[in-house]
Design goal:
11 helices; 324 residues; alpha/beta; globular; 9-stranded mixed sheet; D-Maltodextrin-Binding Protein, domain 2; 2 domains
Length: 324
C-alpha cells in the first residue's frame, strides 16, 4: 500500500513537472545583470534578451543588481526557484574569479547553477586616460613601474573581470599601483575619461566607442591578433608581453535543478539569438566574439567554469589582492 502511494506521488510530481516544462514560459522571464546599467555585461544582456523574447514568446526583462562585484546578485540567482523564470548573465568574475576572491562566498559556481550556454567572449584591452604620458605598451610599463605609488587603476569591484585582468597584469609586471573600486562600468569609465584615474584593464566591448572617439588611449589589446574594430591598436604579444593574453566571457545560468526541458528551451533561444544576422552584427561591432558549435552547449559551459575557477584561483594565490 505504501509503495503504491509513493509511486502515485512520484508519478503525479513527474506529470506536474512535465506539464510545467511544456507550458514554459507562461510569464515574463527575469534576466539578472549583476552590475549597474551601462557596462558590457549589461549591453550584451539587453541585446540578447531582445531576440530571446521573440523566440520564447514572453518578455525577457533585465534586472540590474550591482554589488560586491556581482556576487550579491549571483547569490540571489543561486537561491531562486529553479523554474526558468529567474536566470542570470554570469561572467568570468562571478563564476570563475569570485570563489578565490571571496573565501566566504555564499554560492558555488559549479554546484549551485544549471549552465544554459556561453553567450560571448571579449578580449581585455589596457586603456589609459587620453593624456597619459605614454603611447606604447613598453612606455606604459616603464611609466607604471617608475610611478606605481602615484598612478591609480579603475576596476568594478574585487573579483570583477576588470579587477582580475589588472590583478594578472600587475602580477606579471611586479607593480602595486593604487586600485579604485567602482559599483559599475559606466562610473569607472566616466572617471577614466575625466582623468580622475589613470588606467584600467577593461573588456574591449566596454571601451570601443571611447577608443574610437579618442576620449581614451588604448595601450594594447590582450589577444593573439588585432581586433577589426580597432585595427590600429597593437596586441600585447606585439608589445612584448605575451603572458598577458586574456579575455572575459559571459554566459547564462539558472539555479541548480532546472528541468532539462526548460534548460534546452533557453539554450535554443540563446543559440537563435547568436545566429541572428542583425544580432551578430551588433555584437561584433561592439567587440564581442560569438561562440560557435560545441562551445555553446551547457556541458561546454560547465567545463569552462571548472577550468576558469582553477585558473583564477592560481592567479590570486600568486598575488593576494586588496579588496578596496
Amino acid at each position: 500500500m505504501y509503495r503504491l502511494l509513493a509511486l502515485l506521488v512520484t508519478s503525479a510530481s513527474l506529470c506536474l513537472t512535465t506539464a510545467a516544462s511544456a507550458d514554459y514560459p507562461a510569464k515574463p522571464i527575469t534576466l539578472i545583470v549583476p552590475y549597474a546599467a551601462g557596462g558590457s555585461n549589461d549591453t550584451l544582456s539587453r541585446i540578447l534578451a531582445e531576440h530571446m523574447s521573440k523566440t520564447l514568446g514572453r518578455p525577457v526583462i533585465i534586472d540590474n543588481e550591482p554589488g560586491a562585484a556581482g556576487t550579491t546578485a549571483t547569490t540571489r540567482a543561486a537561491r531562486a526557484n529553479p523554474d526558468g523564470y529567474t536566470i542570470i548573465m554570469g561572467n568570468m568574475g562571478t563564476h570563475a574569479a569570485a570563489p578565490a576572491q571571496y573565501p566566504a562566498l555564499k554560492y558555488n559556481p559549479i554546484d549551485d547553477f544549471t549552465p544554459v550556454g556561453l553567450a560571448a567572449e571579449v578580449p581585455a584591452v589596457i586603456v589609459a586616460r587620453r593624456d597619459f604620458p605614454a603611447d606604447s605598451l613598453a612606455g606604459f610599463i616603464a611609466y607604471v613601474r617608475a610611478n606605481q605609488d602615484k598612478v591609480n587603476e579603475a576596476h568594478v569591484g574585487a573579483g570583477s573581470p576588470t579587477h582580475m585582468f589588472c590583478t594578472l597584469l600587475e602580477s606579471i609586471l611586479g607593480v602595486s599601483p593604487g586600485r579604485v573600486a567602482y559599483r559599475g562600468g559606466a562610473q569607472a569609465m566616466n572617471d577614466l575619461m575625466g582623468g580622475q584615474v589613470d588606467f584600467s584593464c577593461i573588456s574591449l566591448s566596454g571601451a570601443i566607442s571611447q577608443i574610437q572617439g579618442g576620449t581614451l588611449k588604448a595601450v594594447a589589446i590582450a589577444s593573439p591578433r588585432r581586433a577589426e574594430v580597432i585595427p590600429n591598436v597593437p596586441t600585447t604579444m606585439e608589445g612584448g608581453l605575451p603572458e598577458f593574453v586574456v579575455s572575459t566571457w559571459n554566459a547564462i545560468f539558472a539555479p541548480k535543478n532546472l528541468d532539462p526541458a526548460i534548460q534546452a528551451r533557453l539554450n535554443d533561444a540563446l543559440a537563435r539569438a547568436l545566429d541572428d544576422e542583425t544580432t551578430r552584427k551588433r555584437l561584433i561591432e561592439l567587440g564581442f566574439l560569438i561562440p560557435q558549435g560545441e562551445e555553446r552547449t551547457p556541458a561546454a559551459l560547465r567545463d569552462l567554469v571548472a577550468a576558469e575557477v582553477s585558473r583564477w584561483r592560481a592567479v590570486i594565490a600568486d598575488q593576494p589582492v586588496k579588496q578596496n
